[in-house]
Amino acid sequence: MSTPIPTAPATITPAALADALRQLREHTPLVQCLTNIVVAQWTANVLLAAGAAPAMVDNPEEAGGFAQFASGVLVNTGTPYRETYEAMRVAARSAQEAGTPWVLDPVAAGGLPVRTAFAVEVLEHRPTIIRGNASEISGLSGGAGGRGADSTASPEEVLDLAQELARTHGCVVAVSGAVDHITDGEQVVRISNGDAIMTRVTGVGCSLGGLMAGFAGVVEPLLAASAATALMTVAADKAMETAKGPGTFAVALLDQLELTTPEELAERVRL
Amino acid sequence: MSTPIPTAPATITPAALADALRQLREHTPLVQCLTNIVVAQWTANVLLAAGAAPAMVDNPEEAGGFAQFASGVLVNTGTPYRETYEAMRVAARSAQEAGTPWVLDPVAAGGLPVRTAFAVEVLEHRPTIIRGNASEISGLSGGAGGRGADSTASPEEVLDLAQELARTHGCVVAVSGAVDHITDGEQVVRISNGDAIMTRVTGVGCSLGGLMAGFAGVVEPLLAASAATALMTVAADKAMETAKGPGTFAVALLDQLELTTPEELAERVRL
Amino acid sequence: MSTPIPTAPATITPAALADALRQLREHTPLVQCLTNIVVAQWTANVLLAAGAAPAMVDNPEEAGGFAQFASGVLVNTGTPYRETYEAMRVAARSAQEAGTPWVLDPVAAGGLPVRTAFAVEVLEHRPTIIRGNASEISGLSGGAGGRGADSTASPEEVLDLAQELARTHGCVVAVSGAVDHITDGEQVVRISNGDAIMTRVTGVGCSLGGLMAGFAGVVEPLLAASAATALMTVAADKAMETAKGPGTFAVALLDQLELTTPEELAERVRL
């Protein structure tokens, strides 16, 4: 497959990213998270630090009603159980019906059959944003996937698949990696902030999906996915200035998610 | 509704709070926690740092037997599943029968119908302490509640409801907020330590419920709820002296829960 | 019961431990964790910091298939639910059939009847390593156990039981405590690094089980259990140099799990 060289979108500028962060902090979007037991605490803390309001409503009885009035919904398949799948189906359907933006994070898609089938199934509810690493995006597109949450491929290598996925489902696809790639099927945003240490703290990618759901509650999807990525990776760059290892990095990252101003975001982001 | 101005209880003094902390550390109460997937780790770490022994026994087969010999039990409805509800019912009943003090933390009561009904249902097992923010206390009393774990009201505004709840169920009600209010239906303890950053770290309130269950294993309920609140908020004040953001605050808070001495508690608490 | 004084194994030397750590970092073993909701995040972060790749695949539909190609599997009974038990049974059986090394951490065995019965039951799938504190090892052997995750006994006191357990099931038994004892039923490795503060951070022991599963994917079981213990306790010694309390200790421990070199491990370990 050959891809025409995508033009840089005129709408995703440092100033637009800064403004998205201002919107987030002004409106404190309510983010419903249906996520895994490993990263639930971390995801809540990331959202709180950034300026959103997390709500982990992930049971089948309450998930649908909550998705109607949440600002955004995250569906993450990290540790799926029978009841969680039920809740995720209900939340995705309800979000679609109510027009609530929702993010699908198909953790380990391609590598594990049951959750891959689930992720493909809920695509019918038209996620606003799909977020994953290169292996997961490949796996969701019918490829081989990785060996768990790892990725052995780079975002560049799966850009064709990501664009096709975005066009087919009318959504934004965000692929994490050394250079994050975010596409709506036409335009491609590339963000090259961040550090490899982010892959040695569990849940950084998962919580990025939560941030995208928060931003999607206040700005349009391509900008939302880009602003979330910019905030996370710029905060990571700042955290690296004091971190000694993955423990101090994670703590500093939470600090910097709160301390990073819209102006700093615009100044430091590398588009 | 009008409330007579409640008299400050003569029993809740800085010296009494300090002595409660001495009791906690001397007896290392065993605290059974049935809590949510978001804050389970944090709650265990808070209890360990303060000087209690957490045990997360939250399955229906073991929860009842454990509640008979635990020092205190926490029931928190943050992420309830079918099996968790079952375990919580069993634990609450068993705690009541065995005379084990237990704490109900009705997370998001009022805002979410299923868990609100559950929280109202288990009131029949006579919790020793009910802990929540103003919205949750209002929701448990039949009011509207908030939009998740947030609170949009202040403890002062729901003091009447809290006192009525305490009198109706013969328990202590603790309402978290800028000034924490704790009442047994007659007397009201107000504690004005703490900082707004506590609401930007997930689980600080939830873990306070765990601390109350621990203190309730060693001193009487009004003192228990007050001592737990005093310890958490004084430790938070101390943590603020070095914190740069929510990440470093959370870490320093755990340190200070261990480092705060009974003498410091008595000196710094603002009743 | 009398035990002949066990000879120090000639194979477990500081140089061998250092080499095991080199192997771990070179091969990045994939560690499937079926563990509890309290320590899942911490366990993942410990494995990532040390140099392994965690994958929390703990549902019955995917656990068996994953155990066939994982480098090692951890089964930890901290917060068992019906679906988790199912997944653990499937994973243990599959690991046995595929020859994947697996670690059993029988949290609170002896103290709680249902999980004790489960832990005894899965012994039929021949764990490669059993890891616990003295009470849990005693409980798994039919003794009384402790009051939750605590231990009231010392590893020395249960060494006879540990050796018998190892001989009966053809596995390595690792008993955590002030001096860790690790035995294959014949030889006994004693490691006296570490600090009591490790018991005031939840999940340090649980994550040690995960580390053992990782090392067991790259070296033989007695060396694997010893290297994991040495790495955790030497990193703890280094973390203590800057820690002010349990919060900063936990953060520094993650840093030191990454920063500790094979050479430092060999130099600092006290066999």
Automatic annotation (TrEMBL), chains A, B, C:
Domain of life here? Answer: Bacteria
Q: Name one Pfam family in it.
A: HK
Does the keyword field hold Plastid?
no
Q: Which residues bind substrate?
A: M56, G203
Annotated positions binding ATP: R131, S176
Q: Which reaction does it catalyse?
A: 5-(2-hydroxyethyl)-4-methylthiazole + ATP = 4-methyl-5-(2-phosphooxyethyl)-thiazole + ADP + H(+)
* Pathway the protein contributes to: Cofactor biosynthesis; thiamine diphosphate biosynthesis; 4-methyl-5-(2-phosphoethyl)-thiazole from 5-(2-hydroxyethyl)-4-methylthiazole: step 1/1
Keywords associated with the record: ATP-binding, Kinase, Magnesium, Metal-binding, Nucleotide-binding, Thiamine biosynthesis, Transferase
* E.C. numbers: 2.7.1.50
Q: Identify the enzyme class.
A: transferase
Output the HAMAP family linked to this UniProt entry. Thz_kinase
As for what it does, the entry says: Catalyzes the phosphorylation of the hydroxyl group of 4-methyl-5-beta-hydroxyethylthiazole (THZ).
Write down the NCBIfam families for this protein, in alphabetical order.
Answer: PRK09355.1
Q: What family does the entry list?
A: Belongs to the Thz kinase family.
What name has this protein been given in UniProt? Hydroxyethylthiazole kinase
Q: What is the lineage of its organism?
A: Bacteria, Bacillati, Actinomycetota, Actinomycetes, Propionibacteriales
